[in-house]
Fold each of these.
Amino acid sequence: MSHPFLDALSAWGPAPWAPVLRARLEERLAQIAERDRKGRAYSALIAGLPAVMPSVIDLDRDWIRIGRREDLGPGERERLNTVLRALIPWRKGPFEVFGMRIDSEWASHMKWGRLRPHVSRLNGRCVLDIGSSSGYYMFRMLADEPALVLGVEPYLTFYYQFVLLQHFIGAQGLFTLPLRLEALPILEEFFDTVFCMGILYHQRDHRAALARIVRMMRPGGELVLETLIVDGNEDALLAPRGRYAKMNNVYALPTVKRVASWLRQAGFGRIRCVDVTPTSPVEQRRTDWMPFESLEDFLNRDDPRVTVEGHPAPVRAIVLAERR
Ligand SMILES: C[S@@+](CC[C@H](N)C(=O)[O-])C[C@H]1O[C@@H](n2cnc3c(N)ncnc32)[C@H](O)[C@@H]1O
């Protein structure tokens, strides 16, 4: 199984981490090809996609647009629709692909709109997006003309959503690796900007995660951290015993003040919170393309200020920081 990043890696040939990254990526690709039923099925679907050049690609809009309806013949359209449907659930988007509107669970343009005015321009930068999902934010970043955008997304449904979109978009310098953050060797002082959004609360050891991230950033590089928080001015933390909003892997919901102290301890400075927004059913909801439970099912029906478990309902903060 090949991967476009394996070719790009030769550009960083002498970097000490390059051979390790190559080996880990090759091992993961072999595992997907040989031992992962879902991965094999997705690869086969992608291989059968029509080889069509979209007549329009517009990445700099809320609904990322690839192609027009009339770019495809009826057979091609049917085939593409089958692949798009096989890749349900579409959590991050939305996209319009050859006239087919993929309304994802998350209206991701809302978060992008909240963070975009505060983030340093990405032109010429090397960017890492941890937990990049379908690549929605990475595609949005391209308007700034970064030098490299690298996503890591271990969950194969989301990874192959990216592969499908990139099949038609063919953006240069843009890659997603089907790896967890922890599987990425430390690319010492490599990235100018790191997006870590919707990740930290899923980490059993947030300190270890931040320690990895800081080492991969050049001094002065920018971290865009988005995470679930709890309200309060003190240095507090909610560590849910069982589930949080029906998720069984939420380990820590800090206050913004606590996030700031984690970042300081990890080696970040110029820490500022630029947004705090409660998640609303306008931003996260069930759609045709994500037909399972969503926010409204995670909240107490009689009191949507709390989750079904009785915890405070989801509120997310965007915190920016610089590597010292
Ligand atoms: C809550 S979603 C956030 C997606 C996106 N970053 C956003 O903010 O909208 C978390 C994503 O991170 C991925 N993920 C989970 N654990 C990860 C890890 N250890 N390393 C990298 N990605 C991970 C998940 O598969 C999922 O796509």
Note: The chain has a mean pLDDT of 96.
Amino acid sequence: MSAAHVIVGASLAGAKAAETLREEGFDGQIVLIGEEDERPYERPSLSKDYLLGKAERETIYVHPQAWYADHGVDLRLGTLVTGVDPLAHEVTLADGSRIGYGKLLLATGSAPRRLPLSGADAEGVLYLRRVADSDRIRATLQTATRIVVIGAGWIGLETAAAARSAGVEVTVLEAAELPLLRVLGREVAKSFAGLHREHGVDLRFGVQVAEITESGGQADGVRLADGSHIPADAVVVGIGITPNSQLAEAARLEVGNGIVVDAGLRSSDPDIYAAGDVANSYHPMLGRHIRVEHWANALNQPQAAARAMLGQDVAYDRVPYFYTDQYDLGMEYAGYVEPGGYDRVVFRGDLEGREFIAFWLRGDRVLAGMNVNIWDVNEVIQAIVRGGRTVDASRLADPGVPLDEFA
Ligand SMILES: Cc1cc2nc3c(=O)[nH]c(=O)nc-3n(C[C@H](O)[C@H](O)[C@H](O)COP(=O)(O)OP(=O)(O)OC[C@H]3O[C@@H](n4cnc5c(N)ncnc54)[C@H](O)[C@@H]3O)c2cc1C
Ligand SMILES: NC(=O)c1ccc[n+]([C@@H]2O[C@H](COP(=O)([O-])OP(=O)(O)OC[C@H]3O[C@@H](n4cnc5c(N)ncnc54)[C@H](O)[C@@H]3O)[C@@H](O)[C@H]2O)c1
């Protein structure tokens, strides 16, 4: 028997790592430790079909309950890991007990940023990360008449769409000039603003939230820095996340915008790895470190980390990918563009009708592409991004020219 491999964080990344360790023939003990009481589940549905009551609870889980025992995975739920001792090769649990490891994977994910404002602790100020949060927001949408959403990022927009579908009036307050601006840039962000306005969302940009107002401990609205007040039955906050890198920091691993790992997902300690939202990994294709806060990364990266933990030579270099569903808009995005890191956006298809592909270019090279309500093209978009060839922008914009030509 080999030494135990321990995984901290029993969510998508942790569960996929455990699965891969077994698939790759690891026959030692696997301990998968999670602070939440739920067995590992996937979060995307929590702001979409599950939130809308269209998907059953059972659909969110990564594996059936029996899978863990069947595969000899020692799943410890409701268990907080409070420390990592790299020298002793042990993790410490909240009850003071210790578990030894041969290799350790930190898949601790991320946590919502909290609003540091007066009133932010009132009843009815809601965040969306865990399944219980989604249950709470769903219950709220069934009784509320109007809500305020703070932040026009992914959580804010998907929640706004769900709320509109439930017939609730929605005001979205965003500090930036447009929704999703840092990720998508102005040209495409405008399209998302239009989508939400068409569905009756009151979008307000460039605003500064001053306080959450309350009566009797219950949030009843939001006051802006200009003194105006927006009444609401509840306030949903989606203002970004911070990576859960505290354990790594305390263990003196290299940390900076998450746990810094190499292309093989190995941290500054050779027996400790990281994957998922918490990992700031070196990406060979991009030639830099990136931290990706999306589902596909939490699905695929831990599989690479698990193989690396077993001594295989691994370089995780998948093209970053994410998707969203809002109202009748579905999209997939592949690639990576730093805020402002592109020269122009080339559109192919019907931007007004929201059936298009957008390509972000620097010079004549495609950095990223996004297909909106057009399907079965994302693989070729990934190939175009990966290929890094120079492209003729006018041909790229022409739907008559096969995309394969640019890959
Ligand atoms: C509502 C919602 C909708 C989303 N929708 C999409 C989408 O449509 N498309 C997309 O690409 N991405 C989406 N995402 C992002 C995606 O879900 C995340 O990127 C993914 O969950 C990251 O997985 P992870 O396993 O790395 O971390 P997490 O899911 O954050 O899980 C980490 C786990 O580790 C546990 N943990 C942390 N510290 C400790 C500790 N010290 N001891 C024990 N356990 C610990 C946490 O409790 C948590 O359960 C969505 C996210 C949310 C919240
Ligand atoms: N479809 C998807 O990929 C998807 C869906 C849901 C959640 N997620 C993930 O969940 C995490 C959380 O999502 P999120 O939407 O909270 O983060 P985000 O980073 O996507 O967006 C946060 C938004 O809040 C704004 N903001 C920040 N502080 C503010 C303030 N004080 N007042 C007003 N606006 C403010 C930012 O400008 C930004 O637009 C992210 O990691 C995200 O990638 C992804």
Note: The first strand starts at residue 5 and ends at 8.
